[in-house]
Each structure stands twice: as C-alpha cells, then as structure tokens.
Amino acid sequence: MDYLLFAVGLVLLVYSGKYLVQSGVSIARHFNIPTLIIGITIIAFGTSAPELIVSIKAALTGSPEIAFGNVIGSNISNIGLVLAVTALIIPIPVGKTSWRVDWPVMMLASVLLYVFTLNNVLGFWESFALFALLITYLLYSVKTSTPVVLDEKNKNNKPQYKLWLSFVIVIAASVGLAYGADLLVNSAVNIASKLGVSKRVISITIVAFGTSLPELTASIIAALKKQTDISIGNIIGSNIFNIMAVLGITGMIHPIEIDHIAFSFDIIWMMFVSVLLFLFIFPFKTVYLNRVEGILLFLSYLLYLAAVIGGYDFESLSNTFHFALPWQ
User: Fold this and answer.
1) Low-confidence ranges of the chain (pLDDT < 50)
2) What is the pLDDT of residue 216?
3) Torsion sign (Cα): 223, 225, 230, 234
4) d(Cα 35, Cα 67) in Å, to the nearest integer?
5) CA distances from 230 to 90, 112, 213, 287, 289 (A)
6) Which pLDDT tens digit goes with each residue over 106-131?
7) Please, what is the Cα angle at 133 between 132 and 136, to 5 degrees?
8) What's the angle, vertex CA 52, arms to CA 47 and CA 54, rounded to 5?
C-alpha cells in the first residue's frame, strides 16, 4: 500500500506542478507581464513547487532528512540526469548568462549551504540569507533584461486559459501539490523503515527523482521535438531556486536539523557535478553541451547512485583514504 500511495503522491505532484505553471503563466499573460519575469518567478516556482511542498511537509512532520536530501538529490538529478539525457537526444545551446551569472550564483548557493550546515542545522537566519540572495538575483535578472524584446515576445503569446479558469486551476493545483506531498512523504518514511534504509537514502534517490520528473519530462519532450530553445539556464535556475527558495523558505518556517557528516558526501557531489558542468559549458571551443559531455554527466549520476545505494558516505570515504574531517 505504501508503494501505491507513493506512486499516487508522485503523480499528483508532477501533474499539479505542471498545471500550476500553465495556469500561472496564463494569468500573467492576461495582465501582460513580461516573459522573463514569468520565467524567473511563476515557472521557477512551479517547477520547484514539488520540492518546496515536500520539504516543508517533511520538516514540519519530523523528517528533516527528507526535506534536505530532497533538494540535494534533485539538484544532482537536474544536472546528471535531466541535462545529460537531454544532451544525448540533442545538443543543448549555452548562453553567456549561463556561465557568467547563473552558474556562479548556483555555486555560491551550494558553498553557502555547505558552510551553513556545519553545525548540523539550517536555522532561520541562514535560511533568510539564502532567500535574500535569491531576491537579489531575481532583481538583477530583471534589471539586466531587455524590456523591448520581452514585450515583443509577450505579444505573441496568448493566455492558455480564460482568467477565471486560470485561478480555478491554480487553486486545484495547489491542493494537489499539498495532498501529493503528504502522501509522498508519509509513504517514503514508511518504505524507508520497512526496507531498513535511512531517510537520507530515500530522500536523495527516490524522492529527489520524483520531484525532478517535471523538469525531466519537459526537457525530453522538447528535445524530441528538436526545439533549440532548451536552456541550460533553466536547469541552473531551478537548482538556484531549490537551494535559496525551497530550503530558504523551509528553514525560515522550521529549522532543518540534519547530520552534516552524513550529508557531506551528497553536498560535495552536488558541487562536483556543478564544476563538471562548468567545464563543459565554458566556451573553450563550442557553445553547446554535446552528447559526449551528456554521457559523462550521466555516468557521474550513475556513479553517485552506486555510492549511495552501496552505503557509502563522506565519513566512510574519509576513513578509506585515511584523512580526518576538520571538525571531527
């Protein structure tokens, strides 16, 4: 029954997130809101809504490992799975903003998260700092955009739904997200208990993969249609939003207490795949993320899963290589 409830909760999250984005964009179109603002607010929130709702629910119900691991695992999945699989189907163009602005912000967020959790808790002020940085990043993105181009693009996009229907769908999708998160978290905790594995392992594998499904599905569909506007910036932006908004908001609502040593391996791997991505997208020769690079990213994801499922963590690896962590 727990597996069935997990699947139902996952489906609710995926479809609720999808319709939340569509209805939110439709409302924005009715009020002639520029395309970029829609992208970095409504769409960013919508695609990260499953992670946000799951993390808040997990933190409030005494499962902080799921709240934290969900975000870390999702960020690793976005790069090592979503971008990798998409690049295998079609080379992905890389814009200058992706490696000049977006990637440094994502890396800064990752490093800050590592530092903020050294004391085994992500408290209110650390979470507030992350969220404040997100607001700064969003304001910078809007300020450096080109209003004329945005307005021209906006005119070519009509609302998908009538205004009243858009609001109804937003409400229904929000309810679906809340109920889906409730099913997903409760069933994930039960499954972890029955299988004898930690909540950390469940959160950074199954839960994280589930909440990354909207990005994965959308990217694969776009790639199969050979749409050349698939953006690495969207995935990097999602990772930024996951750390600064999902953990930021969750931590301000309720402190997230985690075992830093247990999660060190996961955070460091998240930073590792981020650096690997930078080496691939920095314009040394090409301005595309090609298939070979996609294969390497996917292999890094498989290697990570093998390490997690095999029971490795940063502490055990440190013992293997005979070095001690500085805070031990």
Assistant:
1) 148-154, 228, 313-314, 318-328
2) 76
3) negative
4) 31
5) 9, 28, 16, 13, 11
6) 999 999 999 999 999 999 999 999 99
7) 90
8) 110
- The total of other beta-carbon atoms located within 10 Å of residue 85's CB is 17
Q: Alpha-carbon distance 26 to 31, whole Å? A: 9
Beta partners for 288?
93
Report, in angstroms and rounded to the nearest whole number, the Rg of the chain calculated over CA atoms: 19
Taking alpha carbons only, the member of 227, 214, 274, 275 closest to residue 10 is 214
Helix (H, G, I), strand (E, B) or coil at 321: coil
Residue range 2-320 forms a domain whose CATH class is: mainly alpha
Give the model's pLDDT for residue 41.
63
The domains of the chain are located at 2-320
* DSSP H helices in 144-198: 147-155, 163-195
Cα atoms in the Cβ-side hemisphere of radius 13 Å centred on 114:
15
Write down the pLDDT at residue 39: 58
What's the Cα-to-Cα distance from 274 to each of 79, 128, 242, rounded to whole Å? Answer: 7, 24, 14
Task: Please tell me the distance from the alpha carbon of residue 121 to that of residue 167, in angstroms, as a whole number.
Answer: 37
pTM (2 d.p.)? 0.80
For residues 54 and 191, is the Cβ–Cβ distance under 8 A? no
Q: How far is CA 179 from CA 164, 173, 247, 258, in A?
A: 23, 10, 20, 25
pLDDT, residue 207, reads 81
